[in-house]
Structures are given as C-alpha cells and as structure tokens.
Design brief:
Helices cover 36% and strands 19% of the residues. With 238 residues, it is α/β, with parallel strands linked by helices. α2 packs across α4.
C-alpha cells in the first residue's frame, strides 16, 4: 500500500513509519527536517521524503502528494516545550487535518483513501455523547483554557466527525509511554477508565501498530471507521 504520514518525526510518527516500511509498504512523509526519521536504510527505496512544513504547502501541492495514496495518517502534535505548547500555530493539527481532507477529496474520484488521526482520551467523542465525571469535565475545561493543544485535539476530531464523505478513524491513546516492543493491548469504543483521575497507559509503539493495522487490515478498518477507538496497554495481572 501507499501511505502518507504527517508528523513522521514525532515520537509515535517515527514508529508508524518504521512499522509500515518493515511490513513492505511505500511511505511518503512530510517533514521539516529528516533528522528524526527512523533509520531503515535497507528500505530507503520505499520511503519518499517531502521536505516542507505541512501548513506551507498549497492546495495543489498537497493534493499532488496525496494522489495515489491508499491512506493518510496524522501523528501531528505539539512539542512539549514552552514554544510548542504556547507558540503559534495553536491549531496546527486542526488546520493540517482540514488541508489533508481537502487533498483527499480532490483525488476522491480516482481512488478511496482512508484517514487515520492520532488523538487523545482527554477528548470526548461528542458524536456519541460520551460522559465524563463532573470533576473530569472541570479539569478538561481548565486544561482547554490554559493549554492550547487541548483545544486543537478537540477541534481536529470534531472536524473529522463532520466529514461524512470521507472514511476516517481517530485513535485515542491514554497516557503515552515508551516501550521497545509491541505488547498486548485492548481497544474500546470509549474510555473504560477516567482519563483524568484514573488514566491507563498506552505505549507509543502499540499506537503505531494499531494505526498501521487499521490502514492495512480491511476487516479492522470496517470495525472502527467513523469511530474514535480508545487503546490501552493490556494490564498484566498476577
């Protein structure tokens, strides 16, 4: 398959690119710098690097990059620095999602393209009226007010939910952690834990594995398309 990945130099995006390449797929990445791309030299012929800021690409350029892709995946997010959290653009993810969806629409007459977004459990799926506790809603509202990336994650998923002509899935991990290997994980339509007061853990490599599986596994895609699945590492009981 051919997959375009935005946010490919991020902590999860790198793992998604590596997963797709190792599984034999052709990957395009849009990056401002190649420094943090995964080092998979034997598969370099399957990797196309577009060096640009995704928000600087015009409509025609982005449509050209998306053309021929079976899927588009976004692992975009804000760097955990003062500039990354409070600096511009505050709506990086939302604007990129809009632009990518427009690019998909421009090519829609030629082929079907899936869209997979990495989101967060802190964002409720308002399409099914998920319930958060009163305390949880208060904390989320405070975070939304004080930390711009929270609003960005909410708006990006809200935008996707209005795109009835596109096939999409927004993957919601809980507290992200680093692990070296894919481990067992569980996926649910909605959070089974309180994301504020009783969060679970999700390894970035498991998020990458699930996003890759959605892209290449049609049965799994049909199960979760148009939804915002929540992914947790499986807890080992003993």
């Amino acid at each position: 398959m051919k997959v375009l990945v935005a946010g490919a130099t991020g902590a999860t995006g790198r793992l998604l690119v590596e997963q797709l390449l190792n599984d034999g797929h052709d990957v395009k990445v849009i990056v401002r710098s190649v420094d943090n791309l995964p080092k998979v030299p034997r598969l370099k012929d399957h990797l196309t690097i577009i060096t640009a800021s995704i928000l600087d690409l015009n409509e025609a350029e982005l449509a050209g990059h998306v053309k021929g892709c079976d899927a588009v995946a976004s692992c975009l997010g804000h760097n955990i620095t003062l500039k990354g959290i409070f600096g511009q653009p505050h709506l990086l993810v939302t604007q990129a999602v809009r632009n990518l969806c427009e690019a998909i629409r421009k090519n829609q007459s030629e082929m079907h393209t899936k869209f997979v977004l990495m989101n967060t459990t802190g964002n409720r799926n308002r399409g099914i009226n998920e319930k958060f506790s009163l305390g949880g809603r208060f904390v989320i509202a405070l975070i939304r007010l004080l930390v711009p990336p929270m609003k960005d994650h909410e708006l990006s998923a809200d935008y996707l939910r209005t795109q009835s002509a596109l096939e999409w899935t927004a993957v919601r991990p809980d507290t992200l952690i680093d692990q070296d290997q894919v481990s067992e994980y569980d996926v649910y339509p909605s959070p089974t834990r309180n994301p504020i007061f009783d969060p679970g853990k999700t390894s970035r490599i498991n998020v990458a594995h699930f996003m890759s599986s959605l892209i290449v596994n049609e049965e799994l895609w049909n199960k979760w398309k148009g939804q915002m699945p929540v992914i947790y590492n499986r807890e080992i009981k003993g």
